[in-house]
Amino acid sequence: MINLTGRVAIVTGAGGGLGREHALLLARHGARIVVNDSGGSLKGEGRLNTPAEQVVTEIIENGGDAIANGASVTDAAAVQQMVDSALSRWGKVDILVNNAGILRDKTFAKMSWDEFRLIIDVHLMGAFHCTKAVWDTMKRQSYGRIIMTTSSSGLFGNFGQSNYGAAKLGLVGFMQTLGLEGAKYNIHVNCLAPSAGTRMLDGLMTSSMLHALHPALVSPALLALASDNAPNRAILCAGAGSFERAYITMTRGIHIGSHAGVADAVLDQWEAISDRNGEFIPESGTAQSQLELEKAGVVVTSKEA
Ligand code: NAI
Question: Which of 246, 269, 288 is the last residue of a domain?
Fold first, then answer.
């Protein structure tokens, strides 16, 4: 049984939906929680402290310990104050759940600059602000568990969500490098790709589908990623009591070389390039050039000083 007694967690966007369930579950497993939420509509309009305060009341009534915070994750200074308040009250931050989010769906042709930028600001820059504010503390502690909330929209695309998809896959890239840089400090960084019947799916599904996708069914995946035994650099999908993993992989491909007909050869040999036999998950970005150099017959050695 996962025991988070003594752990301190910050959950952004925890006034409702998935974040609320995450915060309640982490608290039930003993963690002390900063319940962050700026309130407001699904489109990110308006501000309200009450959703975060209500979740704090619930946690305390259940015998837990929590404080409310109304910062918008887009406000770096307010996010720093939020982290400072957790540090001054509890002396550490062990777990960060980057969950806050909004939608501004539109086809790309109709999407304004502001609608694109706002979604990047909330999801990607918001996660950056929160992560930056806890990173040194986690390094000093030699302990950290960070969860980014990605989405199947980013991983696989969704009509009308080019802004959201870009931000959500950006979080996967953010996680990949942080997981590498944090490993030696026991900071594990993972992505959760939820599917949940929150207000984000209002009008898109029947009530029985929404019921089957209750957000509380996603939170155990979050709890696993927040635990001492969390993996590092995984993309865990969760919804309706099911759990899957998504991967970013590379095929072995072929070597074509350099001559006037290379572009035509790429199209002619599309099937061989795409062949998933021997497909692998690169340990880091350098794997691509290493593989290409090997196929070009170049011996790969580390650069001499
Ligand atoms: P929700 O709308 O119920 O919850 C999002 C919460 O974030 C709200 O309470 C909102 O007030 C808060 N929030 C919004 N902007 C904020 C800001 N700037 N600062 C602080 N708090 C802010 O939506 P849901 O479904 O619970 O979404 C949670 C996360 O899961 C989001 O990142 C969303 O993109 C992601 N997600 C949800 C899926 C679903 O099926 N519901 C699918 C894939 C990803």
Answer: 246
Helix (H, G, I), strand (E, B) or coil at 210: helix
CA of 105 to the centre of ligand 1 (A): 14
Residues of the chain with pLDDT under 50: 305
Within-domain flag for 1? no
- Separation of CA 74 and ligand 1 centre (Å): 14
213 CA closest ligand 1 atom index: 40
Q: Which tens digits make up the pLDDT trace of 201-224? A: 888 889 999 999 999 999 999 999
- CA distances in angstroms from 180 to 19, 155, 237, listed in the order given: 26, 20, 21
Residues with CB under 6 A from ligand 1: 12-13, 15-19, 36-40, 42, 44, 51, 72-74, 99-102, 122, 126, 149, 151, 194-196, 198-201
Last-in-domain residue among 212, 246, 280: 246
Inside any domain, residue 144:
yes
DSSP E strands in 72-225: the ranges are 95-98, 144-149, 187-194
For the segment 10-37, what is each residue's pLDDT rounded down to a tens digit? 999 999 999 999 999 999 999 999 999 9
